[in-house]
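Quick one:
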Amino acid sequence: MEITTLCVVVATLTVLPNRSQFFLYESVSLSCGQQGNSSDWTVKRNISPEITEDCPRPTDRRNESHCFIDHVYIFDTGVYWCESAAGKCSNTVNITVTGGSVILESPVLPEMEGDDVTLRCRNRTTSSSSLTMDFYKDQLFIGSSSTGNITIHSVSKSDEGLYRCHISGAGGSPGSWLTVRGHPEPPQSPITLVLLPVGGFALFLVSVSVMLPCLCRSHKGEINHTVVLYSDVTWIRTCNQKGEPLRRNSFLFSSVAVYRPDRCIYTPNPELMNKACS
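Output:
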C-alpha cells in the first residue's frame, strides 16, 4: 500500500523494533524525529484506501509525536508517517502484520549505497537452526541459509526490490521492499568557484608569455606575416556573400592558437575591413 503526500519532507519516522513485518500481538513503537519541538508532529497512518487517521498514542502520555501499539492486529497493516500543521512531513513506512508463522526482518528505512544489508528470516514457532531458509528477490531465488540470515554486501540501486523468504515446513513471509539511496554530492565550496577561473586565467597568461616569442620569430629573426596569433577573446565581424561587413560584432572565446587568416578580423579601418572580406 502506498500513498502520495504533498508536503516538505524534513522529519524521520523511526520504528522500534527496526523492521517492517510483525507477528500478531507483537508490540511496535513509532516516533517522529526532528530537531526542534517534536510535539508539533503527529503520527498518521493509512490503513485502507478510505481510512486515514492518527496513530494510537500511549495511554499514559499525550505526546502526539509518538505512537505505540501494544498488540498489533491485521488491520494495523498500512502506511505510517509524521505530519505537522505547517504542511511538513516525514518519510513513509510500510508496516505489515501477518497471521502466518514466518516474517522477513529487513530495514525499515532506505539503506545507503555501499553499505552491507542483512536480511533475517524468522519463524515464530520453530527453532531456526534446524531449518533451511530460502530467500527471493522479485520472485527469483537468490540463496539459502541455515542460520536464517543472508547479507547483501555493498548494496546498490540494482539491489532494490521486493524480498521475501520461505522456510520448509513453515511457510513463507510477506514481501518487504528494500530501498537504496545514493550518497548526496557535497556542495561545491565558494572558494573553489573563485579559484578555478582565477587559476585558469593565470595559466592562460603564462601560456601567452611562453608562446608569443616563439610564434612571432622567423628563421632569421624576421616576423612571419602569414601567421596570426589570437588571444583568449577575439573580435569577429561577419561578412555577407557580397563581401560587405555586417553591423553585428561577436566574440570568440578560445585558447591561444596559430592559423592563416581566412575570415574577417575586426579592425577600425573600413577600407582594411572590406579588403579583408574580399
